[in-house]
Every structure is written in C-alpha cells, then in structure tokens.
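User: Working on a comparison across species. This one is ROK family protein from Candidatus Acetatifactor stercoripullorum. Can you predict its structure so I can line it up against the others?
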Amino acid sequence: MNIAVLDIGGTAVKSGLWTGESLEEKREEATHAREGGGRLMEQAKEILRSYRGFEAIGISTAGQVDTRDGSIFYANDNIPDYTGTQVKKILEEEFQVPVAVENDVNAAALGELYYGAAKGLSDFLCLTYGTGVGGAIVINGGIYYGSSFFAGSFGGIVVHPEDMGQGEFDGCYEKYASTTALVRMAKSVDASLDNGKKIFAAMNRPQIKEIVDRWIDEVTYGLVSLVHIFNPSDLVLGGGVMAQQYVAEEIRKRLPGRISPGTAGVRIRQAALGNQAGLMGAVHLAQEAVRNSGK
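Assistant: Here's the predicted structure for ROK family protein from Candidatus Acetatifactor stercoripullorum:
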C-alpha cells in the first residue's frame, strides 16, 4: 500500500511516499507558516498532488492535535489561524482516501517505536532537542495525550525558578536545554558559532567545551525530574545535537549519580530516524487509519 506522508513544521514541510518497504521521493520545502493555516492547507494539497497512486495520507504537524477528529486543538503564533483547522476533513474531502493526523513529536515517537530506536519497547519517554524541547509519553505502545492533548510538553519543566518572569517558558527547561540555548551560549563567546555543527567542530577549544558541558548539565537536570516522575525503562533522545556521541555518553555518565537508586537501570537511547521520524510515525498512523476504515 502506498502512503503519502507530510511532516509540517514551522519552518519546513518534509514529505515522502511510503511504498510498503521504504520511503521514496523524499522532499523538503519552506513552510508558508506565516501566511496562516489556510495557506498551509493549500500548500499541503499542492505537495500531495505531486505524488501519484497513494491510498492513504499521514500527517505529522506542529501544534496540539485533537486526534478524535484530526483537527488542530491549539497552535501558537508561529502558524497564525491554524487553531481549529480541520486537517483530516479537508484532506479527506480533497483526496478521498483515509487520513491520519498527529502532533509532530508524538509522530516522531511512534516512528521510533515501530521503525527506529524504540522498536520492541512498549513504554518510554521521547524527547527532541531543537528550537525548543518537545516530548512524548508512550505507554502500552500508544501515546498518552492528557486532558487537552498537551501531555509530554517537557520543555515547560521549571528548572530555574529564579529566572521565572512574564515570558512563556521563562525559567523552564527548553530555555536552557534546547539547541537554541546551546547556540545562544556559544555565540556569547564566538558569534560565528551559530549552529550545533559548528559548535561541536570547535570542541577542541576549552571555552567551547566548557559551554557544551554546562549545556549537557542542563539537559540532565530535566531528565532527573522525568525519571523520578515516570520511572521509565528507556529515554529516547532526538534532535540533531543528540546524534553527537559525546553528548549521549556524557548524559549516560552524569544521570545515574543524580537520580535515586530506586530508578536505576534507565537506558539512554539515541533516536535512530533523524528528521524522518515524524514521517515514519505518520506512515504507521495512516496504516491504522486504513485498517479502521475497513478499506
């Protein structure tokens, strides 16, 4: 069964065609997010029309998704007027095939569960480190959503109450543990270090290594809280910076000494699917949508 999949982010839309064995015709283009939810849906239709012969559609998207009807429960101003958009209904009416819609981090977690680093697990936490810090809670092989589809928003953990103010996420985990935070710290020393790759390439400089080590401490602080709350067997960590072996190994070294012996044994896994995790999660959800439709 061929499935067309989109991963809609605030800056880019990734897409591909699942052929039953592999993801083909992979593409990426800038998101027309600032033009609003209506324009974004037109862009989604344009991309999907460029694929041929698909029998279902899977959508991974920014924003809180009401999985009962495939609509956007809430989206911030990164995509104006996206809240309330009936994504599933719009695309099913346009293409006359089953459509599944899921939040992008939840979709990434499902991608890792069925095709990546979490294969064979039934319970784990998934965190992604990028512009912010996103999270997903997987219990008994499914996503735990909370009362308003917002569960897993680990970026909101308060780690520095002394810095709390009126701004969103002031004093919270993502202000210190995101890739954005790492870049901000590095640029205060060297303005040319404006992305993660450049920062890790400069790790031979003692000042930069010290910044990276301080940032890894910040990453670990949030994980301490999550380990004590959920007592997971596994933490799956994704995002470009988590592909760095130094980061993963240092987290594995530092975390055990900061958590209760009663939580011992938690495993740190690096996400395996990279920026295709959301697409692969969308594949799985579309397959489920087809089964549920009886087609």
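For your comparison, note: The first helix runs from residue 37 to 49.

User: Helpful, thanks.
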